[in-house]
Write a structure and sequence with these properties.
Strand content: over 45%
Protein name: F5/8 type C domain-containing protein
Strand order of the largest sheet: 1-6-2-5-3-4
Helix content: under 10%
Shape: elongated
Number of strands: 6
Number of domains: 1
Distance between the termini: 6 Å
Largest sheet: 6 strands, antiparallel
InterPro entries: Galactose-bd-like_sf
CATH architecture: Sandwich
Number of helices: 0
Radius of gyration: 13 Å
CATH superfamily: Galactose-binding domain-like
Structural class: mainly beta
Mean pLDDT: 77
């Protein structure tokens, strides 16, 4: 298996209104936290790959109902973390707007 560490990948792009500022700085001490109780982080892997697993590592405040979806074209999304995909989207929802959930690291494992 091969890990794609999206926190330091130059192929990492975002299309949501909650622009993360700390996901591309190669610093494990930082995390992406949306500026609202709900936020979406979208990663472009650069090309379609067959995924074995997608593993978000949450901040101390965990989301109440996270969703991980994948897409080949960035428009049509499906639930699940395996199979062919170019895009990975993680949506987090926080129970308390003052204690927002976030992502410390997003690990994507490519299938062999």
């Amino acid at each position: 298996m091969r890990f794609i560490d999206l926190s330091c990948s130059p192929l990492y792009r975002h299309w949501d209104r909650h622009r993360p500022t700390t996901t591309e700085n190669n610093d494990a001490a930082t995390a992406w936290v949306p500026d609202a109780a709900q936020g979406t982080l979208t990663a472009d892997l650069g090309r379609a790959v067959r995924l074995a697993k997608v593993s978000p590592e949450w901040t101390r405040t965990r989301p109440v109902s996270p969703e991980v979806r994948t897409s080949l074209d960035g428009r049509h999304w499906r639930e699940g973390t395996t199979g062919p995909a170019r895009f990975v989207r993680v949506t987090v929802r926080s129970a308390d707007d003052k204690k927002r959930a976030g992502i410390e690291e997003l690990r994507v494992t490519r299938a062999k």
